[in-house]
Design brief:
By secondary structure, the chain is mostly helical. 85% of the residues lie in helices and 0% in strands. The chain contains five helices and no strands. α1 crosses α4, α2 crosses α4 and α3 crosses α4. The longest helix is centred in the last third of the chain and has 35 residues.
């Protein structure tokens, strides 16, 4: 039963992370207020030269062959979306675990009334 609870905790946190990123995009669009925008800038600034060269030369070349412009930029944005989803989900996991622990400590009659 414990494994099932942990799995559901991480699944809920993952979906909360996705919803948070989607909500950020819905409210801000692709502006600096969008949560993935500063992460994208940080990734472009902090990546090693070899990775940047690969993204610019190889991925852009592959993207041109399959009809997708700026594939390297889109890969960077996708990585920023993944990082922001994981960041937000990691903030939710402790809250869910604390909530479960506090709910388990409530008196039985009170927890059934709520």
């Amino acid at each position: 039963m414990k494994v099932r609870e942990e799995r559901s905790t991480f699944l809920i946190a993952f979906f909360v992370g996705i919803a948070s990123v989607a909500g950020s995009y819905a409210s801000a669009g692709y502006t600096q207020a969008f949560i993935a925008s500063p992460i994208t800038s940080f990734l472009a600034w902090g990546m090693p030269d070899v990775v940047l060269r690969f993204a610019i030369v190889v991925l852009t070349g592959v993207g041109e062959h399959i009809g997708i412009e700026h594939l390297g930029q889109q890969a960077n944005l996708l990585l920023a979306l993944v990082f922001s989803t994981v960041l937000l989900a990691s903030l939710v996991v402790p809250m869910l675990l604390i909530g479960r622990e506090l709910t388990a400590q409530l008196p039985r009659s009170f927890s059934q009334a709520v």
